Every structure is written in C-alpha cells, then in structure tokens.
Amino acid sequence: MLIGLVGKPNVGKSTFFKAMTLMDVLIENYPFATIKPNRGVGHVRVECVEKEFNTRCNPRQGYCIDGTRFTGVELLDVAGLVPGAHEGKGMGNQFLDDLRQADALIHVIDVSGSTNEKGDNVKPGSYDPVNDVKFLEEELDYWFYGILNKKWVKFSRTVEQTKKELYKEVANQFSGLKITEEMVKEALKGFNANSPTSWTNDDLFRFASVLRKTKPIIIAANKIDKSTGEENLKRLKKEFPDYNIIGCSAEVELALKEAANKGIIKYVPGSSSFQVLKQDLNDAQKSALDFMKRFLDKYETTGVQDVLDTVVFKMLKYITVFPGGVKGLKDSHGRTLPDCFLMPPGSTALDFAYHIHTDIGDKFVKAIDVRTKKALGKSYELKNRDIIEIMTT
Predict the structure, then answer these.
(1) Do residues 51 and 322 make contact, with C-beta atoms less than 8 angstroms apart?
(2) In this model, does residue 381 exceed pLDDT 80?
(3) Mind listing the domains of the chain with CATH numbers?
(4) Model confidence, pTM
(5) Model pLDDT for residues 320-349, shown as the tens digit of each residue
C-alpha cells in the first residue's frame, strides 16, 4: 500500500510527512522546499491482540505502546503543486507522475489561509483554503483527461471494431493508477459505453472527472492551531460534505514525537494527552510542553494520526491480521506476535498465505483460527484482528 501526500507548496506537507515518519527531510518556510519525492513509513494504530493472551508482543517492524500496535504504511511526499500544473506551471506534471501508484491521496492544505495559491506567505485568513480543494480537483481532472485524450480516437475505434468491453479496456489503460474494472464500470454509468467514438471532448473530460473521483482523497486541514483555522475548517466541511476533512497540526505532532524520542515525555501517537517524564526542563521546554498540553486539551488530538488511520481503515477499508500458532505465538527467533499485516478488504486465507511468502501460498493446506482452533479453508474471508496459522505441505 502506498499513500501519497499532495498539496501546494509551503502548507506544511513536509512537516506532516516528518511527523508521520520521523525521517530527516528538508522543512523550510518557502515554496518548493521539496523537489524530489520523499519516501518513508508511517504507522496506523491497531488494538494489539497481546492483551487477550496476557503477554507482551515483540514487533519485528513497527512498535507497540500499552496495547496499541503501530504497523507500517509506505508514504510518498511529492513536490508542491500550483494551479496550472497540467500546463507546466510550477513543477508541472512531475508530481502527478510520482503519484501514479498511490492507493489514496492525503491533500495537505493550510486551513489558516496564510499561504496563497503559489505558496507565498500572506496574512492569516487573507487566502481562502476552499480554493486549494477546487484547484487540486481541477488538476487531477486534467491529468486523467490527458491520459484518456492522448489515445482516445484510435482507442475508441478499436474498442468498437473488436466489440470489447469499454470498462475493461479503460481499466487496463489506467491500471498503473490503481484504477480497477469495477471503478471504471461505476464511472461509465450515464455515458454511452457502446459508442465511445461518438463522445465529444466535453464527454471525455466529464468522464475523466467522474473517474478521478474514484481515487480516495482525504483532506488534512493543517495549521488548525492558528487563529483563523477553526472558522475555515467549518466552512470547508460545509462546502465539501463528501470529503473526509480532519483538522490537524503537523508541528504539534512532530514536537510531541521528538520530545517522546528524547525521553522528555511519554506520548502515544493519536492520544489526547502525554505524561512528562523529566522534571529538570528549561523555560523554553516548559513553555513548549504547556502549549502542546493546551492544544490537546482543546482538540483532543493533533489530527495527524487520525488522518492516516482514516485513509487506511475507513476509506481503503484495510484490515489487520496477525500470524500466530495454536501451540504458541512465538516465531523461530523467539519473538512473540512479531508481525501485524495490513490486508485489503475481501482477502482470503490463501491471499494471506501468499502475502507472507510465495512458497507458503504454493504449499497451502489449510489455515487455523488461533482463537477458536477451527480449521479454515483457502477461501475463508479474513476478519479484522484475526490470528491465523497457516499449515503447509
């Protein structure tokens, strides 16, 4: 799974990326600080199964804090986008090409309205962040349209002459963008799928726009801590009721995680509070912690963790599955519950076996539900937080 971060320059996108991954990326208060895409791993929250077995897990990847398991998701932070990117403005279409394989997009905007359409700093509240949502939609529409329009005349004629299913052929053309046949089939409702050669440019652009909406997008309304943020957030939610929009502060989340890494506080990402561990703090540290406490008291979360969790579990509907054994939860290295895998909806026991390793899938005999000790066939549809043992030849 790959989640892409998009947005215009200077809205805190790189700060958001670093807050999720703790990677050392360039963070500067000017447009286009990010030129080449950054790849890293963020983590979604899962209720660990360790409590059920009165044990402590030893994650091979990710980590676990007080029964909350954090499992990895690949993230991609691309160059900033400005209106007219499809015409070559700013970084042009480079950011779009970088995002081809993303399963979903996180659109980071400056909800305080303190950066204009080019990413320049302006007086907070003087720019309307509603424009940012609209311009991203427009750029993605033109991107999809460009892909379709490039070969449409020859493509549509071939489809008609060979009497092939249009939705299958379009899905094949968009396969590199994670667009499935079912998505295309749904998007084609209301269009003349039997005669694509009769489509006008307006028809093609309208279809591109409908198809674009199949790409899951969540809006991370960053800089909510600024004075103009709350009011703008309310307007955004009213203006775009079909979007998931979450107010957040990447700066506060990053500061909390860095303080936790230094042993100053204990903080579970996504929590509404933290515990101070060190008492010998200087005035600057005390002031910073006081600000973060007041922020969490008011908003209950920084919003950053909520954004990623919402994308993975509510929008993409992934589930988590733990490998385990009926006779024990340790692996060959003595680690307890070392893995927690994210699986797409509808995954079967056989899919899980192949996800672990190709050889395990090839030699699959049956699966076992570790909780109930019940044998499961290869077509068993996995449920969230299942603990599964795979038996092989």
Answers:
(1) no
(2) yes
(3) 2-37+78-137+216-312 (3.40.50.300), 319-392 (3.10.20.30)
(4) 0.90
(5) 999 999 999 999 899 999 999 999 999 999
